[in-house]
């Protein structure tokens, strides 16, 4: 079991968490950023807003190209390679992940991967995916745990029922889709 000491520990590395950690570090505070997932950035960056925006960008370019016919410029019908589009989406996400990790390193923010659990008023136990535990003793804590996709209990278990994360990972584009919910990702779908 490893032990760390910090003036500030931040639980969660989404936009709120990494911004708080970077600000604390910029103020000269010894800062530890704890993230349960392998990549920094939270839901928006990894499985939400950013992947959705990357796909929307591709769709917008296709739409703009087709609308140029009214300006006297005509393009052939586009060939869609869903695997390459998915690779583009993942490249965008990875570049942003690396950017956040680079900013953390430049600011000397210690990043700890694992699930954090408070064990006292000034201690946090973090367990990583391999079951290894570390303890962080801190003076101040910021909880920026972010959002989580909810399952709707009234819906049956069915492979056709998707959440926003699984919808963004579909192998093929469905002919039709019904979206429940008025959040930004649901609206973009």
Could you describe the 3D structure shown?
The longest helix is centred in the middle third of the chain and has 25 residues, at 82-106. The protein has a 6-stranded mixed sheet, with helices on one face. It starts with a strand and ends with a helix. The protein has a single domain (2-151), classed as FAD/NAD(P)-binding domain (3-Layer(bba) Sandwich), CATH 3.50.50.60. The model has no long low-confidence stretch (mean pLDDT 94). It has 6 helices and 6 strands, in the order E-H-E-H-H-H-E-E-E-E-H-H. It is elongated and about 65 Å long. Helices cover 38% and strands 22% of the residues. It has helices at 15-26, 42-47, 49-67, 82-106, 164-167, 184-188; strands spanning 2-11, 31-35, 110-113, 115-120, 123-127, 133-143. With 189 residues, it is of the alpha/beta class.
- Give the neighbour order of strands across the main sheet: 3-2-1-6-5-4
Question: Secondary-structure element sequence?
Answer: EHEHHHEEEEHH
This entry's quaternary arrangement is: single chain
- Named at the architecture level, the CATH assignment is 3-Layer(bba) Sandwich
Tally of helical runs = 6
**Span from first to last CA?**
44 Å
How would you sum up the global shape?
elongated
The assigned structural class equals: alpha/beta
Q: Evaluate the radius of gyration.
A: 21 Å
The CATH topology label is FAD/NAD(P)-binding domain
What fraction of the residues are assigned to beta strands by DSSP?
Answer: 15-25%
Which stretches of 5+ consecutive residues score pLDDT under 50?
none
Overall strand count: 6
CATH homologous superfamily title: FAD/NAD(P)-binding domain
Instruction: Quickly count the domains.
Output: 1
What is the makeup of the main sheet? Answer: 6 strands, mixed
Task: Determine the mean pLDDT.
Answer: 94
